[in-house]
Amino acid sequence: MKLWSGRFGKETDTLVNDFNASIQFDQRLYKEDITGSLAHAKMLGDCGVISQEDVAAITAGLKGILKDIEDGKIEFSADNEDIHMNVESLLTARIGDAGKRLHTARSRNDQVALDFRMYVRREIPEIIGQILDLQAALAKQAEKYQTAVMPGYTHLQRAQPISFAQHLLAYAAMLSRDVTRLEDCKKRMNECPLGSGALAGTTYPIDRWETAKALNFDCPMGNSLDGVSDRDYALEFLSDMSVLMMHLSRFAEEVILWCSWEFKFIELDDAYSTGSSIMPQKKNPDVAELVRGKTGRVYGDLMGLLTTMKGLPLAYNKDMQEDKEPVFDAIDTVKMCLPVFTGQISTMTVLTDNMRRAAGHGFINATDCADYLTKKGMPFRDAYTAVGHLVAYCSENGKTLEELTLPEFQNASPLFNGDVYEALNLEACMGQRKSYGGPAVCETSRQIQAVEAFVAAHRM
Questions:
Q1: Phi-psi region of 276 (alpha: psi -120 to 50; beta: other; left: phi over 0)
Q2: Helix/strand/coil for 261
Q3: What is the Cα–Cα distance from 45 to 387, expressed in whole angstroms?
Q4: Taking a C-beta distance cutoff of 8 angstroms, is the pair 158, 362 a contact?
Q5: How many whole angstroms separate alpha carbon 85 and alpha carbon 37?
């Protein structure tokens, strides 16, 4: 018999029962559901709403159910629709009438709002930990390649000389923002909906501050309508997951490019690559490609929940049962992607000679050449034009800037002297970029230390 069956004169159609049930996915909330019920029962007893004998029976019963679930002894039933009604039915079967008193001053609406909020809150530190692991791996790799010159790109065209360390540290900086976004989300969502009831609170003399404190919330939610209908935290969390996956996808795209024969800047470890069923020479970057592909999946989770929520009037609507699967899917996807991506980065072989060779072509020291003239007194725009003519001349004659003779330089400007060759040396070009955040070793060393300090400070 349904716990809500009193109003109804016939049994629910089997198809409707299966359609309506959520136990197949919300059973993962069992720990949060029991934890919330334990706090609720204690509060009811403390406020004199139920007897202390009932509190003791409920507490023992719930703890027994929790142990049996974790020991794999419980089989949930779709007839009881969701995790909340499954637990309550089990409790009542075990302890009798005391179990029926647990739901006093509570609705499934505030119960599910509590459980789901607690679940997301619990998952955030684990995801943050995985992000920090990736940052630590990036810092470790960056430490080894501070002097490895590579071309920096804009428009996927070689632009200016940077170090491989600086490129890796750019992603470490993005990941720092991902961490702080998740921390902000966790802080903002830390208000307790329990006690909101169905939507209008309750006539019982409950203490919402007690349950909020017991469940490690900062305070109760201030409006009971908002308490049962808010899913902003889930949307914010999915947005944070989408931005994180976007960062991983951008990085994955570069890994895919770098390990191609056209670039060959890195080689992926055999343990993080796959082969072809027909082409024996292939070594495919499937980890990076799957991360790139799964990014769209997490975007879909966000857009699905946004679309579900956009037309819902206050307060609770059954549509909101659709909130959990996208969040569960995003969590599972991100927690699968981060460790394997970290392993891929930690084990890759960096082909620094190939990077340096690529940096030697494409005139990526042209800006440094213009800066050379500017430091000799020429206005930058005039220097830009003069070097542009030199680049055009080099292109027509199959030369690099470093290969020009001094007379060829001086045809563009008499300000060129023999010291121009040192100014155009790629290692020197990179090493002179000491501005805050730049690729010079003094700056990448600072950035590495900052990443390591960030990782240490944000471990939970």
A1: beta
A2: coil
A3: 82
A4: yes
A5: 12
Q: How far apart are CA 286 and CA 23, in angstroms?
A: 34
Exposure string over 273-307, b if 16+ CB within 10 A, otherwise e = beeeeeeeeeeebebbebbbebbeebbebbebbee
Which pLDDT tens digit goes with each residue over 399-427? 999 999 999 999 999 999 999 999 999 99
- The fraction of the chain above a pLDDT of 90, given in percent, is 91
At 6 the pLDDT is 58
Q: Which amino acid is at 187?
A: K
How far apart, in Å, are the Cα atoms of 352 and each of 5, 310, 357, 445? 71, 51, 9, 19
Closest CA to 221 of 123, 331, 109, 128: 109
138 and 167 in contact (C-beta within 8 Å)?
Answer: no
Q: State the pTM of this model.
A: 0.93
Q: Give the total residue count for the chain.
A: 460
Cβ atoms < 10 Å from Cβ of 150: 28
155 is annotated as an active-site residue: yes
Please tell me which residue in 77, 260, 276, 395 is annotated as part of the active site: 276
- Is 124 in contact with 138 (CB distance < 8 Å)? no
pLDDT number for residue 108: 95
Beta strand residue intervals within 283-438, DSSP E? 349-350
Q: What are phi and psi of 162, to 5 degrees?
A: -135, 180
Query: Is the sign of the CA dihedral 133, 134, 138, 141 positive or negative?
Result: positive
Q: Name which of 286, 284, 296, 289 is nearest 333 in CA terms.
A: 296
Across residues 202-222, what is the average pLDDT? 98
Question: Distance between CA atoms of 420 and 416, rounded to whole angstroms?
Answer: 6
If pLDDT is split at 50, 70 and 90, which confidence band does 277 have? confident
d(CA 21, CA 217): 29
Ordered domains of the chain (ranges, CATH): 5-104 (1.10.275.10), 109-204+222-357 (1.20.200.10), 366-424 (1.10.40.30)
Instruction: Report the amino acid identity of residue 444.
Output: T
What does the block give as tokens for 213?
Answer: 């404190």
- Is residue 4 pLDDT above 50, yes or no? no
Catalytic: 389?
no
